[in-house]
């Protein structure tokens, strides 16, 4: 039985993030990953059963890393509206700090067949601080919708679209750009 070499596993993960960013999920193969990571072609199989297992496990790890400070960021707000803004700003900062990871999350979330339904159910548990915040906002009747999925889309889709557009056009996006989009999103989400 092979032992887990954490350094090689990290190289495999970095290779997956880079390849998904440059080529997308559909053409991702273990041979490409191994070549990019500088490891033997069998190395990815030491860590993952197959492509779906790999995509799911890396997704959960990346989401955990990005969401690590989300709950703390949310609690700094004095009102639910402020907490929603802080949650969105936290995510904006993470998107700028971890662009490959952010692109990876977007790629997995926009490819329904990339991972199993069981893995998707696990993913939904990762955003617990946001879901709790949405529930508080709904209970307080602060928002134009009471559907958590609609809330999430209204709050984050414009920011994701801006990030994608800037990336495609090889333009830099700043936190100020994202703050403007977040404020516009909140203006449309919060009841007047």
What does this structure look like?
With 192 residues, the protein is mainly alpha-helical. The protein has two domains: 6-47, Orthogonal Bundle (Arc Repressor Mutant, subunit A); 67-189, Tetracycline Repressor, domain 2. 73% of the residues lie in helices and 0% in strands. It has helices at residues 6-23, 30-37, 43-47, 51-67, 70-75, 80-97, 99-109, 117-126, 128-139, 148-168, 175-189. The model has no long low-confidence stretch (mean pLDDT 92).
Kindly provide the name of the CATH class of the largest domain.
Mainly Alpha
Please identify which CATH superfamily of the largest domain we are dealing with.
Tetracycline Repressor, domain 2
Distance between the termini: 62 Å
Number of helices: 11
Keywords: DNA-binding, Transcription, Transcription regulation
InterPro entries: Homeodomain-like_sf, HTH-type_TetR-like_transc_reg, HTH_TetR
Pfam families: TetR_N
Domain HTH tetR-type: 6-66
Give the SSE map:
Layout: H1 6-23, H2 30-37, H3 43-47, H4 51-67, H5 70-75, H6 80-97, H7 99-109, H8 117-126, H9 128-139, H10 148-168, H11 175-189
Helix pairs in contact: 1-2, 1-7, 4-7, 4-8, 6-7, 6-9, 6-10, 6-11, 10-11
Protein name: HTH tetR-type domain-containing protein
Keywords: DNA-binding, Transcription, Transcription regulation
DNA-binding region: 29-48
